[in-house]
Amino acid sequence: MTYVVTDNCIMCKYTDCVEVCPVDCFYEGENTLVIHPDECIDCGVCEPECPADAIRPDTEPDMENWVEFNRKYSEQWPVITRKKDPLPTATEMDGVAGKLEKYFSPNPGEGD
């Protein structure tokens, strides 16, 4: 099992989760985060820390595409280990449907 970041992180990018991760498996994109599924140790401490409820275990239904999404971008983006301010759009974008199709940016973030 691994944990993955889903589309509710897009345009929010809360980073509460990265501070509690014991193995530094979060990677930063321009407007979202991902978890490297091969580095995640399945401890689950990140899941309750996410204010947007965007982190899910891969054992939930329909998570296969999110595992591959997280794998792809974690191999392209820089690691992030420290908490940063969320995006200015975080509050208004939390829970908005269709964020992957409408707002996702494949560009890397700054990392640490």
UniProtKB/TrEMBL annotation:
Chain's role: Ferredoxins are iron-sulfur proteins that transfer electrons in a wide variety of metabolic reactions.
Positions of the 4Fe-4S ferredoxin-type domain = 1-30, 31-60
Q: Which domain of life is it from?
A: Bacteria
Please list the cofactors this protein needs: [3Fe-4S] cluster; [4Fe-4S] cluster
NCBIfam families, from UniProt?
FdxA_Protbact (NF045490)
Q: Name one Pfam family in it.
A: DUF3470
Name under which the protein is recorded: Ferredoxin
Taking the record's annotation, the residue ranges forming a coiled coil are: none
Q: Which UniProt keywords apply?
A: 3Fe-4S, 4Fe-4S, Electron transport, Iron, Iron-sulfur, Metal-binding, Repeat, Transport
Cite the source lineage. Answer: Bacteria, Pseudomonadati, Pseudomonadota, Alphaproteobacteria, Rhodobacterales
The protein's matches in InterPro entries, at most eight in alphabetical order, are given as: 4Fe4S_Fe-S-bd, 4Fe4S_Fe_S_CS, 7Fe_ferredoxin, Fd_C, FdxA, RnfB_subfamily
MF terms per GO, please? 3 iron, 4 sulfur cluster binding; 4 iron, 4 sulfur cluster binding; electron transfer activity; metal ion binding
SUPFAM superfamilies from the xrefs?
Answer: 4Fe-4S ferredoxins
- Return the Gene3D superfamilies for the record: 3.30.70.20
